[in-house]
Design goal:
Serine Threonine Protein Phosphatase 5, Tetratricopeptide repeat; TPR repeat; about 325 residues; 14 helices
Length: about 325
């Protein structure tokens, strides 16, 4: 990160999230509206300052400061939601970094451009191609942390494009780099993505459920260590589905119950509703399975022989045995 550059909107919002929750809905709405308006006015003022700064640095031959001004301008446009305009400034920053041999800045530029194309692709998928190109360039020159980030982004993109194979490969590389960095948070992200390919509802599409179960169990372990309750709930939900597919309804009901309780604590109504439905289905299957076993046990201990089911006879055979229907009836004249 470059010194004396503007903070991204996501960082500002995350720091103030707890304060916002402490206020009433009405006051919070008014306050956020005021803050947003104030930030936009301040951002526009700073944009003019950086425009003047970049021009002055270019004339003075201060390339590094010129590049920093372009980068800062791009961040401000990101905060305003103008991703296309931000990309233009990140590309200027990229040119400066290449010219002065700043590899760290070049990698940062590739990442920023790739992420912005990724955001634009959510509205228009044609931008996914540009996003992939820039994330690949980022991966080639980045350090270990940068390579981790590039593979995570590529995995997400390929998942959105429903290319599970490439998504899986990139998330596995991300996991490898996270382990190399000894980053529990990074491992949690990578394993969570591996276990959540194509979302929880499509978990049954995986042939190798044992391997998937291993990823989800590790994700549950990491989420517990990081005290990430929402991650724990999602992991229990997935494990419940995997166990249900194997016919282990006893274990699956316990996982669904845990997911339901965690969702209640975290206020995740969507996961809570899904876990409750799946718990009901698994519990019904469990009771039916027990009922069948009880019937079979009773039949084993009973003296009544279990007769094999007779195959149905054809109409022609019945007629041959019994004769025509009117054979024993008097004729009516």
């Amino acid at each position: 990160m470059y010194f004396n550059t503007p903070k991204r909107k996501e960082d500002i919002m995350s720091k103030n999230r707890l304060k916002s929750k402490m206020k009433s809905m009405k006051d919070s709405a008014l306050n956020m509206s005021y803050i947003d308006s104030y930030n936009r006015i301040a951002a526009k003022k700073r944009l003019k300052d950086y425009e003047i700064l970049s021009f002055a640095c270019k004339r003075a031959g201060k390339s590094r400061d010129e590049g920093r001004a372009y980068y800062s301008t791009g961040v401000l446009y990101d905060n305003l939601g103008k991703f296309k305009v931000a990309i233009a400034h990140y590309k200027k920053f990229l040119q400066v970094c290449k010219a002065i041999g700043d590899v760290h800045g070049e990698a940062l530029a590739y990442n920023c451009i790739g992420v912005n194309y990724q955001k634009m692709a959510e509205e228009d998928p044609k931008f996914y191609k540009e996003a992939i190109d820039y994330h690949l360039k980022h991966k080639e020159i980045a350090d270990v942390a940068g390579k981790f980030l590039a593979h995570v982004n590529l995995g997400i993109i390929y998942n959105n494009l429903e290319d599970n194979e490439k998504s899986n490969i990139n998330h596995q590389f991300a996991l490898r780099y996270a382990i190399q960095m000894s980053s529990l948070a990074g491992q949690s992200v990578a394993i969570g993505n591996l276990g959540n390919l194509n979302a929880v509802s499509k978990v049954s599409s995986y042939a190798n459920n044992d391997k998937l179960q291993m990823f989800v169990e590790r994700y549950l372990e990491l989420s517990s260590e990081l005290k990430y309750r929402k991650g724990e709930g999602c992991a229990h939900l997935q494990l419940g589905q995997l166990k249900s597919q194997k016919g282990d309804y006893d274990t699956s009901t316990r996982h669904f119950y845990r997911a339901m309780k965690i969702a209640e604590q975290t206020g995740d109504n969507e996961v809570k509703a899904e876990a409750r439905v799946l718990f009901g289905v698994a519990n019904a299957n469990l009771k039916w399975e027990k009922h069948q076993n009880e019937i079979m046990e009773k039949m084993k201990t009973s003296d009544v022989p279990i007769l094999p089911k007779e195959a149905p006879q054809d109409d022609d055979d019945e007629e041959a045995i019994d004769g025509p229907e009117d054979a024993g009836l008097p004729s009516v004249k």
